[in-house]
Inverse folding.
């Protein structure tokens, strides 16, 4: 059973983080309420008082309660399968549709706007960012670097591509949102291209909400071979290193015969270096964005140099040598 599969869908977005005032300022202004589930506390913040939660005659309040229940239930379900979901998650519900949805860096907090859409898909993407703090690793960053070589390796994980009617959805009419997951230099960062964290969040969304479609794409003979390879690695990473075997398929796991460590051992450092040095032009443009400059080409060139010193090794050998959680400063 997929997470949130009975619910309507919306687009996961990350945007306008920089436009936010410091989080303490927000917390100070926001009403707070906690929903305790069996294993999880979800602390909600909202810009209107939660005082009348028991009175559902006010449609907005009713909707807030519904959203809180959906979000808490989905987080509880994820928590049961993924040890990287913390015991306490904070969720800020914004009334302003333009604020956007995102995870606040350094906190177990996701931000979701309130009235304009259902939240499950946004929530899954943003929860992916929370999980990434603990699930990040050297092999994951190298998979991201391998993906840079061709946009098709990212396209399989585009959040909006799993949502057939997305372009008709309300969100698409909200000015400024349409570009969020396509590379569009001059307008802003995008996922899943932007960095290893964004690729992870988009993949986390696909893995939990659209596993059957994701598997179909990986197995589709029309999918470019290296895109299918990269996507299989991404899938196996989530299954074996993040969800420790738990899948959300309707049917049996089609990738049962594979495991992450033997598959990542097939990826050679030469292939990653080649992907960095011959980056897909669209992805390359995106990394020139001012929001992405820190993780732009300077760092990538250093990464390629560093990898060059270990040519002949595969990713597993390199990661075993340095430690899975060891990140050279330049490595994105
Ligand atoms: Zn994101």
């Amino acid at each position: 059973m997929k997470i949130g599969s009975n619910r309507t869908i919306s687009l996961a977005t990350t945007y306008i983080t920089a436009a936010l005032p410091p989080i303490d300022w927000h917390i100070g202004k926001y009403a707070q309420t906690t929903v305790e589930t069996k294993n999880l506390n979800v602390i909600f913040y909202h810009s209107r008082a939660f005082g009348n939660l028991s009175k559902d005659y006010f449609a907005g309040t009713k909707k807030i309660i519904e959203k809180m229940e959906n979000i808490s239930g989905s987080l509880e379900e994820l928590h049961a399968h993924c040890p990287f979901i913390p015991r306490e998650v904070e969720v800020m519900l914004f009334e302003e549709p333009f604020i956007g949805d995102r995870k606040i860096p350094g906190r177990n907090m996701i931000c979701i706007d309130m009235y304009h859409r259902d939240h499950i898909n946004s929530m899954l993407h943003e929860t992916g960012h929370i999980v990434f703090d603990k699930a990040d690793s050297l092999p994951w960053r190298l998979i991201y670097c391998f993906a840079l070589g061709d946009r098709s390796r990212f396209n399989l994980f585009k959040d909006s591509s799993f949502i057939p009617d997305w372009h008709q959805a309300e969100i698409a009419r909200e000015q400024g949102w349409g570009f969020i997951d396509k590379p569009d230099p001059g307008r802003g960062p995008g996922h899943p291209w932007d960095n290893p964290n964004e690729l992870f969040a988009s993949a986390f969304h696909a893995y939990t909400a659209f596993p059957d479609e994701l598997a179909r794409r990986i197995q589709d003979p029309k999918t470019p071979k290296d895109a299918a390879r990269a996507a299989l690695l991404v899938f196996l990473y989530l299954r074996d290193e993040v969800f420790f075997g738990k899948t959300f398929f309707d049917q049996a796991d089609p990738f049962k015969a594979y495991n992450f460590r033997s598959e990542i051992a097939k990826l050679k450092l030469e292939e990653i270096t080649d992907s960095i040095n011959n980056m897909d032009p669209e992805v390359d443009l995106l990394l020139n964005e001012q929001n992405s400059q820190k993780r732009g080409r300077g760092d990538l060139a250093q990464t390629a140099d560093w990898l060059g010193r270990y040519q002949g090794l595969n990713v597993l050998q390199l990661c075993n040598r340095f430690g899975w959680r060891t990140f050279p400063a330049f490595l994105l």
Notes: Residues 59-81 form the longest helix (23 residues). Confidence is low (pLDDT under 50) at residues 5-28, 49-58, 170-180. Residues 17-135 form a domain with the Glutaredoxin fold (CATH 3.40.30). Residues 268 and 314 are 4 Å apart (CA to CA).
